[in-house]
Structures are given as structure tokens and as C-alpha cells.
Amino acid sequence: MNSRSVLILMGSESDKPLMQPASDILTKFGVRHMMTVASAHRSPVKVARLVKDAETKGVAVIIAGAGMAAHLAGAVAARTTLPVIGVPLASGALNGLDALLATVQMPSGVPVATMAINGAKNAAYLAVQILALADKRLAKALKAEKTK
């Protein structure tokens, strides 16, 4: 089994119910992962440390979810060459549209794969697909899931 893992970041503790489905999908596929709170605005040093450590601890994909135009996924992508999947979360007056636009509008050379608002499940499925490129067990499990 491939030992590569996924790091799930969220901007605040209140985002956990919206990001939990990503953890549930990764668990279903047997993918090692860690979920933690780290805000690009309130704790940028923590974000930088987590991203730096991720590269040395076997993390292969980072999922970052935040709302209210918080730019967590972009802040992460600026610090790594690992694939970053952004999950804009519904919150505030614009109900996630601000987060969607902040996540999808990245400059050239700093890509973020952007999911739908509250798209944590699809973020996890995409992470599994990325890992499955080098893990035959995951590839087989994904094919079985699609067939089902």
C-alpha cells in the first residue's frame, strides 16, 4: 500500500462539519490523512509550517477549505508544489460565492484545483484519484466505486 497521505486544512473550527465529509471519504478508501485548523489570515506562520512539514512527512495532496473570501488554498499553493485542492465554504453574506471566487482566481504558476461550494466530498475523491496514479489498490477501489 502506498504510504502517501493527505493533509486537510480548514480556516476555522466552525468549518469542521463542512470539511468532515472529506475525511470520511479518505477513511473509506483507507487513505492516511490529518485534519487541522490553520487560517491564512489568523495563523499564517502555522500554515507555512504545516505546508513545509507536509512535504517532508509524506503528504502527497493538500485539501484546503475556507469561507468568506479567505484565501487558504491560495496561501498554501504559493508555498508548495504539491497538488492543492480548494474547497470554498458557504458562509457570510455571499453564502460562499466570495470564497469560490477567491479560490478559483489564482495567478499563473500557482494552481488550485477548485471544487464547488461545500465540495469536500469531491475534494477527497480527487485526492484519491491523484494518489491512485501511483497506488494500484486505490485505483482498483476507485474503479469498483464508479462501477457501483
Structural commentary:
With 148 residues, the chain is of the alpha/beta class. It has one domain (5-147): Rossmann fold, CATH 3.40.50.1970. It is 44% helix and 19% strand. The chain has six helices and five strands; from the N terminus they run E-H-E-H-E-H-E-H-E-H-H. The protein has a five-stranded parallel beta sheet with strand order 2-1-3-4-5, with helices on both faces. Strand 3, helix 3 and strand 4 form a beta-alpha-beta unit. The longest helix has 13 residues, at 16-28.
Q: How are the secondary structure elements laid out?
A:
Layout: E1 5-10, H1 16-28, E2 33-37, H2 44-56, E3 59-67, H3 72-77, E4 84-89, H4 97-104, E5 113-114, H5 120-132, H6 136-147
Parallel strand pairs: 1-2, 1-3, 3-4, 4-5
Helix pairs in contact: 1-5, 5-6
Question: TL;DR?
Answer:
The protein is α/β, with parallel strands linked by helices. The chain has helices spanning about 15-30, 45-55, 70-75, 95-105, 120-130, 135-145, and strands at about 5-10, 35, 60-65, 85-90, 115.
